[in-house]
Write a structure and sequence with these properties.
heterodimer, A: about 775 residues, alpha+beta, Beta-Lactamase, 6 domains, 7-stranded antiparallel beta sheet, 27 strands, about 25% strand, B: about 325 residues, alpha/beta, D-Maltodextrin-Binding Protein, domain 2, 2 domains, 5-stranded mixed beta sheet, about 45% helix
Chain lengths: ~775, ~325
């Protein structure tokens, strides 16, 4: 049951709630509209009803009043005739009262001395007392009828007149209204009045029967607003609609209604009586100038409607509850398989593809879902199987590619320094394929004093390019063995590749032969990028003919070119993978940036030059993928240099020997004295290390080569001792106090600080340490 | 023992109370009309025990429809009556030897109300104005005569129906009584149709308390105590109007007289206004000799009295000294 209301957790509860909300809104809207129209209908029918009832009542009264007035008007002719004996008037009034049950009393009142023998007052009066009719003479000094309203007002107004109701003390002891008709003699002179009294009892009864609702009431007011019929007897003839208005919070409402009533208007209004909103209907009794009003509390008028609304509301509420329960149970039933599906899905996720699915007997969407689920299960099994085989195939390819990569890397010379014993050449190269294997290539070898080198770029990437790269490299090696001109070599490679090049692949090449003794460079370009030439203080692109890449045309006339490199000039060759390296925003690295980064790097070692450029490229590329194979080959030729080789024993006395040799070396190559000292110190540090530790106390020899080329001093220390790489040694933390530091390491640190470049290699069981320092000559 | 003592004390207290009741001096008082807020002070004085405190046992007997308070005084049916100054003077002239012991009214309350469209008294010349057959209207008739307004006075017993029906062009009303009915009868009358006699130089005070001179001679102390306690009653009514109206209505109910709350409220409020002298703005409860002289002159001029009535003869010494 608790879960019955868990809207967040239960699909069924939530859906039921939505349905209930929508149905509820529809219910409320429908009920509101229906209530509104019912309200309007009830209101207008109440208005119409009141209007009709009031009209009926006033008409009834008018009829009665006019009946009496007409009757009296007819009888007066008998009196006016003048031949009527005075005493007969008594019979007349008795007759009138006896014959007309509506008449409570009747009088004929004459002017003073109309009948000489009757004196000042003469007014025979008949009135009903129980079942009998009593007759008397009204006038006497204590009852001066000449000032009475029923006598004097018609006389003053000179017209027949209905008096305001008054309490008849002399006659029927009840509230009456008197109709007075004027009596005239033959000359038209006023001789008195003939009157008929009507009891207001009948009016009270009629008005009080005007009660369409349990708490409604009616009242009547006279011409001056005085209550003449009212459920509260104390108000009759005592209060007026205007006087009770004064007790209201806002008297003007009732006052203006009262004014309309005494003005003979009819209509309706809404008023507040006893803190209840009431409808107030009023209509005049025109003949007499009175007005009738009916006060109906709004609650009464709409009692049936509100009762009905209550019932309808309750039924609707019950209906909503029923819908809620029904929806909830139905939804629960419909959605119950979903829970089993959820459990199954969880099991599938854990690898149990053969988990049993819930049985669905229906043929609806749930059944469809079950079928789809089953289908998915089946497909998953298949998919997993094919995934397994694909994965193993991929693994195989990857492993093969790894091997290919190793093979390709093995094809190119990767050991640097490539020629540690040659001080006239500094060569360094780097090949970084974009994929496992690439289409870039470089190669070089020395034959005599000639350096054969090649850098190339096969169109495309990946395995196909790598195959052509391998072929090109092999052709370079084999053809350069017997062809001595770069153009011939290029042509021969080109022709070999062009033949049977069905896949229309091509290779850009730059091939050169550098005479290490003279600095003469013969070269041939086959559509490759212009290398950068660094000499003295200039950095520029190496000028050469573009020609076309190889593999496109048979027997293309490639031509040799020759140039003389300055001593220490650097030829920086690369593939387009460098200048076209793309950043994250697809910007190319570009020629300008390359020239800029190379600026001032003439005296760097080849290795450092490559490292600097690669670091700059890496910075440019950022997190973007490497777009192409990137290859650099940099060659520094130092053909005109001075060098000497010392062979020293591992004895401390040799330190002095070296010192002397260095002094004479510095003299020869014009090293300024201020630079000599730190260099001496560095070298001393290095060879003391070798003497002390390289041979672990056993006697041994080591070589020190001192050379100079293009203002760069190179010191190569070669020993056959235990492997020791001072370049690898971590720098000591010189920020710590001397006593906190580890012992040792400072010497190597000093060497690194004083030298431009410290390079260590281990080859043929030898430690080869190369130190370089650019100098400013005297 | 204790209980016995308590009982004894109770009996003693009871006998004392009976004794003092027996010692109260009986006074029958008749106002000039049936119970209404016009006489609120007297009913309040009874209800609040002011008369009893003065050693008086006062009974109020209303005059009834066929008789007047003066007539009751004349026939010894009332010890003290309330009546209007001019009527008291006429009565005195006619030989009823009465004296004024308290003058509650200080301002005249007669108001002429005219039908819509008539906005000055002069316009009433040749027109009908309803006035009571009883003598209250004399001052208005005198004023009309003095100003040569040729008014056709229509004698009526009471009420405002003559006015409502349109049979008359104007009606003489009492500010505290019929004026309220006229203003609340649905005729569109305003202050433009309202003329206070007091504003036209005819400010003759009205209600006061009177007794026969012979009575006063015999029971001057009782009469003065009655006047004093009545004054207290009025002062209480001024301070507690709502309570006083309720007291009056209670007495009206006892006398089977239908009462309208709003009318009785109005009446008390206006009576209180009229008890204040328009010039001094105080309620003195005494008859001003100058005003008395003016009243005497009007009555003489219009022939209502045959000879001047000296102030000293008309006002009881005790009342005069106040």
């Amino acid at each position: 049951m608790k879960k019955f209301f868990k809207i967040r957790e239960s699909f069924a509860a939530r859906t039921s709630m939505y349905i209930i909300i929508v149905v509820g809104i529809v219910f409320i809207a429908t009920l509101s509209v229906s209530f509104y129209f019912s309200y309007k209908t009830v209101e207008s029918s109440a208005m119409k009803n009141a209007e009709v009832t009031m009209a009926k009542t006033t008409l009834e009264m008018e009829r009665l009043l006019s009946g009496i007035s007409k009757m009296v008007d007819n009888i007066k002719l008998v009196v006016e005739d003048g031949n009527l004996p005075a005493d007969t008037v008594y019979l007349l009034v008795r007759q009138i009262v006896a014959n007309n049950t509506d008449i409570a009393g009747c009088a004929v009142a004459f002017e003073p001395y109309y009948f000489k023998d009757k004196g000042y007052y003469f007014s025979p009066f008949a009135y009903r007392q129980g079942d009998s009719v009593v007759v008397k003479q009204l006038g006497n000094p204590d009852h001066d009828y000449f000032t009475m309203e029923w006598y004097q007002i018609p006389k003053l107004l000179d017209k027949n007149f209905w008096t305001e109701p008054y309490y008849d003390e002399g006659g029927g002891e009840s509230i009456v209204s008197t109709y007075s008709t004027i009596l005239r003699n033959k000359n038209g002179e006023f001789i008195g009045v003939l009157t008929a009294d009507i009891s207001l009892d009948w009016l009270s009864t009629t008005v009080q029967n005007l009660k369409p609702y349990p708490n409604s009431y009616s009242f009547a007011i006279g011409c001056g607003g005085t209550f003449i019929v009212h459920p509260d007897k104390d108000k009759i003839l005592n209060e007026s609609i205007f006087s009770i208005a004064l007790e209201d919070e806002d008297p003007t409402v009732m006052q203006s209604l009262g004014q309309k009533m005494v003005d003979g208007e009819s209509g309706e209004a809404k008023i507040v009586r006893d803190d209840k909103l009431c409808y107030f209907f009023y209509a005049p009794i025109e003949q007499i100038g009175w007005s009738l009003a009916m006060v109906c509390p709004k609650d009464d008028i709409f009692a049936d409607l509100s009762k009905m609304s209550q019932v309808v509301f309750n039924v609707a509420l019950f209906g909503l509850l029923l819908i809620l329960v029904f929806c909830r149970l139905t939804m629960q039933k419909v959605a119950s398989p979903l829970k089993s599906f959820a459990a199954s899905a969880k099991k599938v996720a854990h690898g149990d593809f053969n988990v049993a699915l819930p049985e669905i007997s229906s043929k609806d969407e749930m059944k469809e879902l079950r079928d789809s689920f089953g289908y998915m299960q089946k497909e998953l099994v298949h998919y997993m199987a094919s995934l397994e085989s694909t994965a193993s195939a991929k693994e195989k390819i990857e492993s093969e590619l790894r091997i290919a990569h190793n093979i390709q890397q093995g094809m190119i010379p990767k050991t640097f320094p490539a020629f540690p014993t040659r001080t006239d050449l500094d060569i360094y190269a780097s090949l970084d394929p974009a994929k496992e294997v690439g289409g870039d290539l470089y190669d070089f070898y020395i034959e005599g004093d000639l350096l054969y080198f090649i850098i190339g770029d096969v169109s495309g990437k990946g395995v196909p390019a790598s195959l052509l790269m391998a072929v090109t490299r092999s052709l370079f090696r084999s053809n350069s063995a017997y062809l001595k001109k770069p153009a011939d070599i290029v042509s021969s490679i080109s022709n070999a590749i062009t033949e049977g090049n069905d896949s229309n692949m091509f290779v850009t090449l730059f091939l050169g032969i550098l005479n290490l003794k003279t600095g003469e460079l013969r070269y041939c370009n086959a559509g490759h990028n212009h290398p950068v030439l660094l000499s003295d203080d200039t950095v520029s692109f190496f000028p050469m003919k573009p020609n076309i890449p190889i593999g496109l045309f048979h027997d293309f006339p490639y031509e040799d070119e020759v140039t003389q490199l300055a001593n220490g000039a650097v030829l920086f060759c690369y593939t387009d993978g460098l200048t076209e390296a793309e950043s994250e925003t697809k910007e190319l690295y570009g020629d300008d940036r390359l020239l800029a980064i190379m600026q001032g790097k003439q005296r760097y070692s080849s290795k450092r030059q490559v490292q600097v450029v690669l670091a700059d490229v890496a910075k440019h590329v950022g997190k973007a993928d490497q777009s192409d194979d990137l290859t650099i080959l940099t060659i520094t030729s130092k053909f005109s240099n001075y060098s000497e080789v010392l062979t020293l024993k591992n004895e401390m006395s040799e330190v002095e020997t070296l010192k002397l040799a260095m002094d004479s070396f510095f003299e020869k190559v014009n090293v300024p004295p201020e630079m000599a000292m730190p260099l001496q110190l560095s070298m001393e540090e290095v060879i003391v290390n070798v003497i002390m530790y390289a041979y672990a106390g056993k006697p041994g020899t080591f070589e020190v080569e001192l050379s100079e080329c293009a203002s760069v001093l190179t010191f190569v220390i070669t020993d056959s001792g235990i492997p020791f790489n001072p370049a690898e040694k971590e720098d000591p933390d010189i920020t710590l106090a001397a006593e906190d530091r580890q012992i040792g390491g400072l010497g190597v640190f000093l060497v690194k600080q004083l030298m431009d470049d410290v390079e260590y290699n281990r080859r043929n069981n030898q430690n080869i340490l190369t130190l370089r320092k650019a100098i400013n000559k005297k | 023992m204790k209980r016995l003592l308590t009982n004894l004390l109770f009996v003693l207290a009871l006998s004392c109370a009976t004794l003092s009741a027996q010692e109260l001096h009986k006074i029958i008082f008749t106002p000039q009309w049936q119970t209404q807020a016009q006489f609120a002070g007297y009913y309040v004085a009874i209800e609040k025990g002011f008369y009893k405190e003065s050693g008086l046992d006062v009974e109020i007997v209303s005059p009834g429809m066929s008789t007047t308070s003066i007539s009751r005084l004349k026939h010894g049916e009332a010890d003290v009556i309330s009546t209007q100054l001019l009527q008291a003077m006429v009565a005195k002239d006619e030989g009823i030897d009465l004296v004024n012991i308290l003058q509650s009214s200080q301002t005249n309350g007669l108001v002429v109300v005219t039908q819509p469209g008539i906005t000055s008294l002069a316009e009433l010349s040749g027109k009908r104005v309803a006035a009571w057959t009883s003598g209250f209207s004399e001052l208005a008739r005198c004023m009309a005569r003095d100003n040569e307004h040729n008014i056709q006075w229509i004698n009526i017993p009471s009420g405002v129906n003559y006015f409502v029906s349109g049979a008359v062009d104007g009606i003489l009303t009492m500010y505290y009584n019929e004026y309220f009915q006229v203003m609340n009868c649905g005729r569109r009358v305003t202050l433009d149709n309202t003329f206070h006699l007091a504003d036209y130089g005819y400010n003759i005070p009205e209600d006061g308390l009177y007794c026969l001179k012979s009575t006063y001679r015999k029971r001057s102390k009782d009469m003065n105590l009655f006047a004093e306690a009545s004054r207290r009653g009025w002062e209480y009514a001024r301070a507690h109007p709502e309570e006083s109206v309720e007291i009056v209505r209670k007495w009206m109910k006892k006398d089977n007289i239908a009462s309208s709350l709003s009318h009785q409220r109005w009446m008390l409020e206006k009576i209180m206004e009229l008890q204040v002298n328009k010039e001094t703005c105080t309620a003195s409860y005494t008859l001003d000799p100058a005003i008395y002289k003016f009243a005497n002159d009007i009555l003489r001029k219009n022939g209502f009295i045959r000879k001047d009535i000296p102030y000293d003869e008309f006002v009881a010494p005790k009342a005069e000294s106040k």
